[in-house]
From TrEMBL:
Gene Ontology terms: biological process: root development; shoot system development
InterPro entries: BPS1_pln
Protein name per Swiss-Prot or TrEMBL: DUF241 domain protein
Organism: Vitis vinifera
Lineage, top ranks: Eukaryota, Viridiplantae, Streptophyta, Embryophyta, Tracheophyta
Pfam families the UniProt entry points to: BPS1
Length: 302
């Protein structure tokens, strides 16, 4: 759907749209799903929960888009314009969204494996088997690798925006004009949710040096207090970073070992659940995006 990304809006703000009162019910369904997604973005849920809802919302949105594309009225209109630049950009965009979705799925899977390895190491440490430093280093290395991969996808999203612009679309009938309008909005909201997901996965990595664990712990704690005072929420990844750094602080007078392990376990479990939701949402969305692309190819091949 990259063909419909407006060049000027760097924040991917989704505008409200007003369709003709006689729009086809399938077009109205797409608009209703868009409004639900905009409401989800404005909710006060945790960051991961909001993104997860957004992904499943996109699944439903593209189900409605596919229903709209499968209308004989839509198919006839699109087939008539199949050689236009904006139609080719539409096809190109569908491929790029699939690529970003696939890469995000790989990143989330890598994160899940790293989190579960760290959970397993904490259980062994609780039994007094060995120190945790190596596992924390492995977790941090995973986070750094994620950031590099995510940066590429974020760059790809930006390139889609810059290259697509707004191709001239003239002399369309009322139905096709309505279809184009909702597809533009679908592109905006898809890009916005993908961006939120990628930024979540590339949250700054807390990477202290071994000789400065106490300082890092104090700074991390101070950062939490500042965020709370300003009404900001730290996400699940940042919360785990703080708990993991506390595990390595040698301070017998505060935070006994068992309490620190319990705190890290709790935050890792919360992150694990969030990752599971993101993984399922991305899987469902990937399959739906494939179906939408197949529908487009079928329309334009006739």
């Amino acid at each position: 759907m990259a063909a419909f990304l407006p060049r000027a809006d760097s924040r991917y703000h989704v505008r409200s749209i007003s369709l003709p009162t006689r729009s086809h019910p399938s077009t109205v369904k797409v608009e209703e799903q868009l409004n639900k997604l905009k409401a989800c973005e404005a909710s006060s849920s945790s960051q991961a929960e909001k993104i997860c809802r957004g992904l499943f919302g996109l699944v439903e949105l593209y189900r409605c888009v596919e229903e709209l594309l499968n209308l004989p009225l839509t198919q006839q209109a699109l087939a008539q314009y199949q050689h236009e630049k904006w139609v080719n950009e539409l096809l190109d965009g569908s491929v790029k969204y699939l690529d970003i979705c696939s890469k995000a799925s790989d990143t989330v899977l890598l994160m899940k494996e790293s989190v579960r390895e760290l959970q397993s190491a904490l259980r062994r440490r609780k039994g007094g088997e060995f120190s945790i430093e190596g596992n924390v280093a492995g977790y941090t290395c995973c986070r750094k690798k994620m950031k590099k991969e995510v940066a590429k996808s974020l760059s790809s999203l930006k390139q889609m925006e810059n290259k697509s612009g707004t191709s001239p679309i003239l002399d369309l009938d009322q139905h096709l004009s309505a279809v184009v309008r909702v597809l533009r909005e679908a592109s905006l909201i898809t890009t916005s949710i993908f961006q939120q997901l990628l930024l979540f996965l590339s949250a700054p990595v807390l990477k202290p040096k071994p000789t400065k664990w106490s300082l890092v712990s104090r700074l991390a704690h101070k950062g939490v207090i500042v965020c709370e005072a300003q009404g900001k929420k730290i996400n699940e990844l940042e919360s785990v970073d703080i708990a993991v750094s506390n595990l390595l602080v040698q301070n017998p007078s505060k935070d006994p070992e068992a309490e620190k392990i319990q705190s890290a376990h709790k935050r890792l479990e919360a992150l694990d659940m969030s990752i599971e939701g993101l993984e399922n949402g991305l899987g469902c969305l990937f399959r739906r995006l494939i179906q939408t692309r197949v529908s487009l190819l079928n329309i334009l091949s006739h």
